[in-house]
Structures are given as C-alpha cells and as structure tokens.
Design goal:
163 residues
C-alpha cells in the first residue's frame, strides 16, 4: 500500500507553532491548493489541513508567512478524539515530511506581513544572482520592446498598480 502525496499551494495563515509537554515542536497550517478545472468560470481551491513536526516545524515557521508559496511532501493521516460531551471527532490531515520554499528569497517578506514599506534588495558581492547586471539593450532590441520608455520617464503612481 502507498500513502504518499505532494502538494503545491499557498499558506492561508501563519503557521500555528506549539510545543508538546515533552518539548517537541508541532505546527499546523492550511494550504490552499488550486484545482485544474474551474467552476462557473471561477478558479476553485481546496483548503488542506497540514501538520509538521520537530525542527522542520520550527524552520517552516521561520521562513514562511501567510501567502507563501510552498511545496510539501507527506502522507495522509486520519485520527480521532472524544469531545467534551462524548462525541467522537475524526480529523484527516497531511503529515508533512518535507517542504520546499517555492518563491525567491526577496519575496518572502511582504510589506503587508511586516507593516514596513518594501525596499530594494541589498546588493552583495560575489557570485550572487542579485549582483549580476542585465546587459544593455541595443537600439534594435529596444525598438521591438513594447514596454520600452525610449529614454522617457514613465508616469506611474502606486495607486495605478493592481496590488
């Protein structure tokens, strides 16, 4: 029998990180995973409850935030517990074994999450991809570019942006 899955989606909220009585870290989160088909022309998503344990949970909490695009690998688990008045509750969730951060590092901290204005990434020396300069365009390349400003300053304000 095989119980294995891989999901790619966005976090619907911050990871809820807690510790057991023995000090083991456990985190719970919900992953919004898009479906391939649309209902009435609108995209649909499934909201999958996930749990992650130990050092992975602490790392996940440190490197993700609401809206982060992540990939998770794990298995499905069904458990049950008794509520206060004797009713049995069944919970099905994904137990995450591995995860991957699927966005560039610079997009991890959003202005909404930190309540800070977004600034340009710091330039560093060495072979970092951020420190490499884009080659200059030739005149023929610039004339074929529909977004080229031809040396003129574009007048775009923050209110013109859709996000």
């Amino acid at each position: 029998m095989i119980n294995s899955l891989a999901l790619t989606g966005r976090l619907t909220r911050e990871l809820d990180l807690r510790y057991t009585q023995s000090g083991t870290a456990v985190g719970t989160f919900t992953l919004a995973v898009d479906r391939q088909y649309k209902r009435d022309g609108e995209p649909t998503a499934d909201f999958i409850n996930c749990v992650i344990w130990r050092k992975s949970a602490e790392n996940f909490a440190n490197f993700t935030h609401k809206g982060s695009l992540v990939g998770v690998e794990g298995h499905i688990q069904t458990r049950s517990y008794d509520k206060q008045y004797g009713t049995k509750v069944y919970v099905t969730e994904v137990v995450v074994d591995n995860f991957a951060l699927l966005e560039p590092k610079g997009t991890q901290a959003t202005p909404e999450a930190t309540n800070q204005p977004q600034t340009a990434p710091q330039q560093t020396g060495g072979n970092s991809y951020q420190s490499q300069q884009k080659p200059a365009q030739t005149a023929s390349q610039a004339s074929n570019d529909p977004f080229a400003s031809n040396g003129k300053q574009l007048d775009i304000s923050d209110s013109d942006l859709p996000f």
